[in-house]
Design brief:
Mean pLDDT: 87
Radius of gyration: 16 Å
Low-confidence stretches: 102-120
Number of strands: 4
Structural class: alpha/beta
Distance between the termini: 7 Å
Strand order of the largest sheet: 1-2-3-4
Length: 212
């Protein structure tokens, strides 16, 4: 699952590497992005998009999400844990509840209205901020019993609550990629791929998972 104002194409290096090793892999466009850019983003719509992809897997998949895709993946896992083998979360190790999401939303709205920053695609930012306002990833993380991996770039500003995430879900594995920023899969694709393969290896006593 990709981040805001990007698309499933950010996963091309990972999809190629995973498929080369024989893993069934699906990269999804969330509402308001890529092939679905004409839609408005909502959390419910994002969760449905994930569920549609999961339904196309013959075995419970390993769900992988970056940034917005990480938060929506965690929200999905909080509701449908039994449908997944595990979750890899990148660039989303910051608790949203209590952060100034409302301020960011208003600034994005006014920037779009007054300056036309980013054109129509900027609406997805305000939609995203409205969708996640009040959402607590830590609350969902505490409920999970399936395996969880965190993969963050060392320079990612959204790793503020990394340690709180680890405490919330004991046994969560953490990989911090030196020199990488928020888009860790693009900044350091080889390191990110290694983290994915390590996660798959930990699940290998089960049937080989699909990747979503």
């Amino acid at each position: 699952m990709h981040g805001t104002r990007t698309s499933s194409s950010i996963w091309d290096p990972q999809v190629a590497a995973l498929r080369a090793r024989g893993h069934h892999t699906i990269a999804v466009d969330l509402p308001g992005h890529g092939t679905r850019r004409g839609e408005r983003f909502t959390l419910e719509g994002a969760i449905q998009a994930i569920d549609d992809a999961v339904a196309g897997c013959l075995t419970p998949p390993l769900l992988v999400g970056l940034s917005l895709g990480g938060y929506t993946s965690l929200a999905y896992a909080g509701r449908h844990e039994h449908r997944l083998a595990g979750v890899v979360l990148a660039g989303c190790s910051t608790e949203l509840r209590g952060k100034p999401i409302g301020v960011y939303r208003r600034l994005a709205h006014h920037a779009n209205r007054l300056l036309s920053v980013g054109g129509e695609s900027w609406h997805v930012v305000t939609d995203m901020l409205a969708a996640v306002a009040g959402y607590s990833p830590l609350a969902d993380l505490r409920r999970l019993t399936l395996p969880v991996w965190l993969v963050n770039g060392a320079r990612d500003p959204l790793r503020l609550d990394e340690r709180r995430y680890l405490r919330a879900r004991p046994g969560t594995r953490l990989t911090v990629v030196p020199g990488a920023g928020h888009d860790v899969n693009s900044h350091a694709p080889a390191a990110f791929n290694r983290a994915l393969f390590e996660a798959i290896a930990e699940l290998r006593h089960h049937e080989v998972p699909a990747l979503v």
